[in-house]
């Protein structure tokens, strides 16, 4: 394994650990650093998207989810729903294996 690949996977693993601890902002930073090395890595985009969902940033979450589809439209399909539990609508989506 090359150093670049090793570093990429280290940042992804670090992001996964932060996500498990509920430290979504720190996880997002780790995933972003990994994506700076491999910008089209689908699984990392989806992982960062999940963080954005947890942080309430649906626009960035959707952007990453859709970016994960750029090269392979069958990787995941994005399903969006609008919930109106109060006066302010919130957007959620789920990533489903095709």
Automatic annotation (TrEMBL):
Q: Does the keyword Ligase apply?
A: no
- Start-end of the TPR repeats? 8-41
Quote a single Gene Ontology cellular component term.
Answer: axoneme
Which key words tag this protein in UniProt? Cell projection, Cytoplasm, Cytoskeleton, Repeat, TPR repeat
Q: Point out the coiled-coil segments of this chain.
A: none
Q: Where in the cell is it found?
A: Cytoplasm, Cytoskeleton, Cilium axoneme
Source organism's superkingdom? Eukaryota
Q: What is this protein called?
A: Outer dynein arm-docking complex subunit 4
């Amino acid at each position: 394994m090359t150093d670049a690949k090793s570093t990429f996977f280290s940042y992804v693993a670090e992001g996964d650990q932060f996500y498990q601890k509920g430290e979504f902002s720190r996880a997002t930073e780790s995933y972003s650093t990994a994506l700076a090395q491999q910008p089209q890595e689908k699984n990392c985009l989806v992982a960062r998207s999940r963080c954005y969902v947890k942080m309430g940033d649906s626009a960035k979450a959707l952007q990453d989810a859709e970016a994960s589809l750029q090269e392979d439209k069958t990787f995941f399909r994005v399903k969006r729903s609008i919930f109106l539990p109060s006066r302010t609508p919130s957007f959620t989506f789920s990533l489903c294996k095709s």
